[in-house]
Specification:
With 530 residues, the protein is of the alpha/beta class. The protein is 45% helix and 13% strand. The strands form six sheets. It has a five-stranded parallel β-sheet, sandwiched between helices. Strands 1-2 form a two-stranded antiparallel ribbon. It has a two-stranded antiparallel ribbon with strand order 5-8.
Length: 530
């Protein structure tokens, strides 16, 4: 009868639609009782909890009313909020323009693909599952912005995103990574993203808990209101950060049972005393340690956050985010394509096999991970390649069909290079100025210098391999190499001479030509790192 009652209670807990529940199994014994010691599992602000025990099974039912605001509730609002409805295709392109110059066709294609995701979520359930994403193939030379477009797109909507190289994977049966690792890596990225968002969401709660524990340790639990408020103000101002305080740092208060495919692993039961708080379910007292208030605050905040981040709901939300919002960018897809002359462009004989293995992943299939089965039906796949030695038509016809949207990105010109140097929010010039500002150097460029840098980058790409916008990095390092090396000594020398606090350093067109023109005049530039 006791076993039947416990089983009925478990069934009711799992089937009640009006409450939030978390269920975990633990080693226990005895009759069906309530355990008052477990009331504070998530701290004094947690919702009511009822522990029900029965012969080896212990069920935690965490109930909260529908209207209750709790920092521990995990749902899709962590990654999918109302702000997405404002991301129209035009708005997405406008945001991408802040970081990426040109390539309007590629931006337009990804903006439509992202908006279609929002449109799909507005459909009835009967239609929603039938709508699949239209995957994209980007064709263009290296350094023209293919990867950056996909990465910025994922950041706009806080979507799980990974970038992989097609050449890292081998056909099933060969030594190397299997293409299913792509999905597994995406789930891991989704878990990290959900944990980060959840940590931000509970930051205020964990800070309040740390403040309460530290103040109680400093002035005791019976201090009057005025004393408590005085110390609270000093705490918030940081005046107590260097004070020494003794606080109790508990171990992890909640550890989940090791369950795989619904089977409770025997080793988890054998170590039940450690994993679930000691004999008879008692939680061992934490260790008291003396440390500064600054260190104690960070330790307590981390401990309180981990109570939430260890929840199984984090994994569930991460899997949901990966399935519904995940973006996979597969670069160098042309390197696993056999050229029209019958020669493999890639480095392995299993390149065509990798294409075949990619087919079910991109089309939609279930991949087994350590977090369970993950479906790829609604993930967005963006593939890219330069296709110098092969053509997109050389890919398997089935793979071409799974990448229906084809976008060509053009090579960058001197005008594009000038815009890259000046228009993005965190452009290369501002980055260099900020870096040298830390040494006390006030770096400035004339407009003529910027145009000269753009022309030189275009010329170097024409004479050497075309590496796109990455050429600007090597050009700037060539121009600024001297001041970057000697900045500390020159600033110190200027200060000893009674100069200004910041050392002015102007780069004009003559300085650019003097640093780069001698190299570009030579026909054989292979021995120069440019």
């Amino acid at each position: 009868m006791v076993w039947g009652s416990a089983a009925s209670a478990l069934a009711r807990a799992l089937l009640r639609p009006s409450a939030q529940h978390r269920v975990c199994a633990a080693s226990a014994c005895g009759l069906l009782t309530q355990n008052p010691a477990s009331q504070n599992l998530l701290g004094p602000s947690a919702p009511p909890q009822v522990w029900q025990q029965s012969r080896g099974i212990q069920v935690l039912v965490q109930q909260s009313s529908e209207n209750e605001e709790s920092p521990f509730v995990i749902n899709s609002s962590l990654l999918d909020d109302d702000a997405r409805s404002n991301l129209t295709p035009a708005a997405i392109v406008e945001k991408l323009d802040r970081f990426i110059v040109g390539q309007a066709d590629a931006k337009r294609a990804v903006a439509i693909a992202l908006r279609n995701r929002w449109r799909r979520m507005q459909l009835p359930n009967s239609v929603r599952d039938e709508v699949i994403p239209k995957n994209i193939l980007m064709i263009g030379p290296t350094g023209c912005g293919k990867t950056e477009i996909a990465r910025r797109l994922a950041k706009l909507v806080s979507a799980p995103f990974i970038k992989v190289e097609a050449t890292k994977y081998t056909e099933l049966g060969y030594v190397g990574r299997d293409v299913e690792d792509i999905v597994k890596d995406l789930v891991e990225a989704a878990i990290s993203l959900v944990r980060q968002r959840l940590r931000e969401k509970v930051a205020a709660h964990t800070a309040e808990k740390a403040e309460a524990l530290i103040l109680e340790s400093l002035i005791g639990p019976h201090a009057d209101k005025d004393t408590r408020e005085t110390f609270r103000q000093l705490y918030k101002e940081g005046s107590l950060d260097d004070r020494s305080v003794e606080v109790e740092i508990p171990g992890s208060e909640r550890k989940s049972m090791d369950i795989q495919n619904g089977i409770i692993m025997i080793d988890a039961i054998m170590r039940g005393d450690k994993a679930f708080g000691g004999p008879n379910g008692r939680k061992p007292a934490g260790d008291k340690k003396r440390m500064t208030v600054r260190d104690a605050r960070s330790r307590i905040v981390e401990q309180e956050a981990e109570k939430v981040l260890q929840s199984d709901a984090v994994v569930r939300e991460a899997v949901r985010a990966a399935e519904q919002d995940g973006i996979v960018f597969i670069d160098e897809i042309d390197k696993i394509v056999e050229g029209s002359g019958g020669r493999y462009v890639g480095g392995t004989v299993s390149s065509e096999g990798v294409q075949r293995d990619l087919l079910p992943i991109i089309e939609g299939s279930s991949v087994q991970t350590k977090y369970g089965s993950v479906n790829t039906d609604h993930m967005l796949f963006i593939c890219s390649g330069a296709f110098h030695s092969a053509k997109p038509s050389d890919m398997l016809a089935e793979l071409q069909g799974r990448l229906p949207i084809r976008v060509e990105l053009r090579a960058l010109t001197a005008q594009d290079f000038h815009r890259i140097l000046t228009e993005p929010d965190s452009n290369m010039i501002r980055q260099q100025q900020a870096l040298l500002q830390t040494e006390g150097v006030n770096l400035q460029f004339t407009d003529g210098a910027l145009h000269a840098i753009a022309r030189m980058a275009e010329e170097a790409n024409r004479l050497l391999d075309n590496i796109g916008a990455r050429r600007l990095h090597t050009v700037l390092e060539r121009i600024l190499g001297e001041i970057s090396y000697s900045a500390p000594e020159k600033v110190e020398e200027a200060r000893r001479a009674g100069g200004a606090a910041a050392l002015p350093y102007l780069v004009d067109e003559a300085a650019v030509l003097g640093a780069l023109e001698p190299l570009l005049k030579k026909q054989d530039l292979s021995r120069y790192v440019l």
